[in-house]
Amino acid sequence: MPFAAPATTFTNRAMQPAAANERWIPAPHPGRHALHEGGEGIVNLWCLVDARNRILDKIAVKQVHPGALNYTDATNWLNGTVGGTPREVSMANAVWTALPPGDRQHVVQCLGFGDVQGQGKWRYRTYSEYAGQTNLLARIAAQNPRTKGLNKDGQQLFPEPFLWMFFESLVKVALAMEQVGNGVYHGDLQAQNILFSDNDPNRFAMYPVPKVSDFGSTRDVSDPDVQNRTNIILEDGCHRFNQPPK
After folding, report:
1. Residue span of the structural domain in which 89 resides
2. The CATH number of the domain where 159 resides is what?
3. Is 241 within the bounds of a domain?
4. How much of the chain is helix, strand and coil, in % rounded to 5?
5. Phi, psi (5° rounding) for residue 236?
6. Mind listing the pLDDT tens digit for each residue in 219-240?
């Protein structure tokens, strides 16, 4: 089920199951049931609260249902071990680790995975840090609010320092992706998958921190499916309204 408390296989961060006076509870997004939905998964927010319902921690839980065909595809698992470590987890951790410690904030940290179930269920969960300051698509849309009766509105542009900070952050992640294996092909680097978290008081303190997320479509650049593009048809190409990896 999508709303399932995180309880297994955490990595990269010392995070223990809830203590006796603590519990994990789902926190549905206002106005909708989930933080994000995709072709194979749904992402929900879970909060760790104490006996007085004070929030101690937040994580994003992604319930992935790839179906039998994709689940049993060895290329979707680390070292080809079906039912082992999901490729998106290993790729996210590899890119995060390739960044200098001070720049790792620009990749959503994968904290672990669990509930790996094959025959009949074909699913697993990933646990990631929660980036709660919307995404790039929402911020772009907010630059052009439409007000009935006004001819000139939405004239407020992104501040230039924000743009410098944003593009510098993406370049740092791109360089880290080149350092992993033969290079990492993200596969879904679109505006909705660039999230923002709370401001860094030590760097561009006025602006939220951009984070690349969702490594579910990643591949090693040397993989045959990445190198061989002969099966790409016009509709799958890079239309002006699609992100480059498409």
Report:
1. 23-236
2. 1.10.510.10
3. no
4. 25, 25, 50
5. -95, 0
6. 888 877 776 656 555 444 454 4
108 domain residue, yes or no: yes
Cα Rg, the chain, nearest whole Å? 19
Return the H-helix or E-strand segment holding 161.
Answer: helix 160-179
| 196-199 contacts at long range (C-beta below 8 A, 24 or more positions apart) | 196/131, 196/133, 196/134, 196/135, 196/136, 196/139, 197/105, 197/129, 197/130, 197/131, 197/132, 197/133, 198/132, 198/133
Can you tell me the distance from the alpha carbon of 63 to that of 41, in angstroms, rounded to the nearest whole number?
5
**Domains of the chain: total:** 1
Query: What's the predicted TM-score (pTM) here?
Result: 0.80
**7 CB contacts (<8 Å, ≥6 apart)?**
17, 24, 114
Residue 13 lies in a domain: no
DSSP category for residue 77 = B
44 part of a folded domain: yes
Q: What is the mean pLDDT of the chain?
A: 81
